[in-house]
Amino acid sequence: MQPAISLDGFIAKLDGDSESWVNQADEARYQQVVRDAGAVIVGRTTYEQYKTDFDSYDDVVVFVCTNNKEFTDTSNVKHLSGNAIEIVDAIKSNHSFNEVIVCGGGEVNGMLADAGLVDEIVISVQSAVLGEGIPLFGIYKPRLNLELISVDQQIPGVVQNHYLVRN
Ligand SMILES: NC(=O)c1ccc[n+]([C@@H]2O[C@H](COP(=O)([O-])OP(=O)(O)OC[C@H]3O[C@@H](n4cnc5c(N)ncnc54)[C@H](OP(=O)(O)O)[C@@H]3O)[C@@H](O)[C@H]2O)c1
After folding, report:
1. CB of 43 closer than 6 A to ligand 1?
2. Atom number, ligand 1, closest to the C-alpha of residue 18
3. What is the helix (H) or strand (E) element at residue 24, kind and residue range?
4. Which residue out of 21, 27, 40, 46 has the highest number of ligand 1 atoms within 8 Å of its CB and is therefore the one to mutate?
5. What percentage of the chain reaches a pLDDT higher than 90?
6. Which atom of ligand 1 is nearest to the CA of 22?
7. Hey, where are the domains in the chain?
8. What would the pLDDT profile of 71-81 be if each residue is shown by its tens digit?
9. Long-range Cβ contact pairs of 102-105 (< 8 A, separation 24 or more)
10. CA 160: distance to chain centroid?
11. CA 11 – CA 9 distance, rounded (Å)
12. Which CATH code is given to the segment(s) 4-165?
């Protein structure tokens, strides 16, 4: 999981804006992480918001969580549904990625974290307080034991904390 987050714990404003307050260099770093991993899992709301970006990845498989049976797959965009375990099992049984980047939004982050299926959290704390917005884990309330393994401040204004999930 590689979210950008406000200091007060939101991944987007209430209107869905997750761009205007996020450092552009941090966003570019995130895009490279996705390219390096070769696979992302994303909620349908996030996919639709950033469809142009997700559809333009050449060598990245984008797994979109949706209950919409009309969703049209492409060569690199595949839809999935079910509970968290079923979704992850479906990926594991058909692919051999070393890692799959969880790209949000809050509902998908929360579903996977709550089911104990997130191994690492690399979170980029932005220099912004939004006051209100979409929480990191949506309506879910996962309880995770974390081990902080590094803190990166290479991008001015952004503190990136890298945690391993120890449950
Ligand atoms: N700051 C960041 O790093 C970051 C990263 C990503 C996204 N975001 C922001 O997050 C916001 C969206 O978050 P969100 O919580 O509203 O939505 P979301 O998690 O992106 O998508 C929610 C949708 O995912 C589908 N879904 C979730 N669980 C499912 C399951 N078990 N099976 C099948 N489908 C499932 C459903 O789609 P259907 O309704 O189609 O069934 C649901 O409506 C946006 O504003 C986006 O900009 C921020």
Report:
1. yes
2. 47
3. helix 24-37
4. 46
5. 98
6. 1
7. 4-165
8. 999 999 999 99
9. 102/1, 102/2, 102/40, 102/41, 103/2, 103/34, 103/40, 103/41, 103/42, 103/46, 104/3, 104/11, 104/42, 104/43, 104/46, 105/11, 105/12, 105/18, 105/42, 105/43, 105/45, 105/46, 105/134, 105/138
10. 15
11. 7
12. 3.40.430.10
pLDDT digits (tens, 9 = 90+) for 23-46: 999 999 999 999 999 999 999 999
Report the separation in Å between the CA atom of 135 and the middle of ligand 1, taken as the mean of its atom positions: 11
**3-state SS string for 79-109:** EECCCHHHHHHHHHHHCCCCCCEECCCHHHH
DSSP 3-state assignment of 151? strand
Distance, CA 159 to ligand 1 centroid (Å)?
Answer: 24
Residue nearest to atom 39 of ligand 1 (CA): 66
Dihedrals phi, psi of 132, to nearest 5 degrees: -155, 160
Q: Does any ligand 1 atom lie closer than 6 A to the CB of residue 44?
A: yes
Q: What is the mean pLDDT of the chain?
A: 97
